[in-house]
Description:
- By secondary structure, the protein is α/β, with parallel strands linked by helices.
- Helix content is 39%, strand content 16%.
Amino acid sequence: MSELRVRPRRRVQSIQEYHPPLGGRGGLRLDFNENTVASSPRVRAVLGAISAEALTLYPERGPVEEMVAQQLGLQPGQLALTNGVDEAIHVLFSAFLDEGDELLLPVPTYTMYEVYASATEASVVRVRSGGDLQFPCERLMEAITPRTKIIAIANPNSPTGAVVARETLMEIAARAPQALLLVDEAYFHFYGKTVIDLVGKIPNLVVARTFSKAYGLAGLRIGALAASEEVLRWVRRVLSPYSVNALALACLPAAVEDAEYVEKYVAEVCAARAEFERAMDGFGIRRWPSEANFILIEVGAQHREFATAMHARGVLVRDRSSDPGCDGCVRITIGTREQMRRAAVVMRVVLDELKGVE
Ligand SMILES: Cc1ncc(COP(=O)(O)O)c(C=O)c1O
């Protein structure tokens, strides 16, 4: 066979494939910040009733988009449904990031911002958080330049769980009128505070929401991008009209209408988070305050062994030690109180074991 003589773009040649550690996820899944129980039973009823004919049709996202926009208090043109927030980030970056532009990121933060930036010709400017892993507000403001084109802020942030005040976000948007401010509210439900009501009022504000976390629909891949109609008109030029599939579109209204189910799940997770935080304090483990459905803890030099030993005992956690400023840290998703009590028991055993081999 002759050799391939076609090379990808230079930028693509220099990046690594991103492999989330998904293989073999049996056990208690506290590694991907998913819903650890299930989606609303109404979603499963819709799924079970989908006809074979419905699958022959190209999906039509418009009516569901309008329904979700209304539910979020937006005008119909101010919301685009996407194949998860990941696609929302991808299309926003492809539509707006040109050569010479800068994507400004407080770090550590969600990995996919860098991945999608690397599919453009823009450069990434990273602003490190301090040891408290709180939002580096002043340093971020100082890093804004005329070339700043997008500022991406996860609020709450991952993997830290830290949050940014609404006033700070408004100040950033005002300081960088030449840039879009993407506020990624993937974990909104566990925090309860949003800036989505400012969409359309602040022209450069873009808000992302996912149905992967509190709603428990990560496998269906649905997210939403909320922005002014003008911003979304540009985004739609690079957005596939069929990227949100028919199953996701069929299920979404049922998920959104069952507000009580999500409220109950979120209340359970918040109670579990408080209880688990107390358990961590009892173990003498450093942790960072979190407003999301996970917490970041410092395990120390044995972070890898810790994650492996937890996995061996049926509890999956995520080693985040290679994130900037997260040396020795592990992120643990918060599920129900019952699940987190089990996790804490396993953790106690693993920590004692590791102490023995120090
Ligand atoms: C901050 C943040 N944004 C977006 C996502 C991805 O969301 P989706 O499943 O909708 O692509 C995640 C998933 O972990 C996340 O942590």
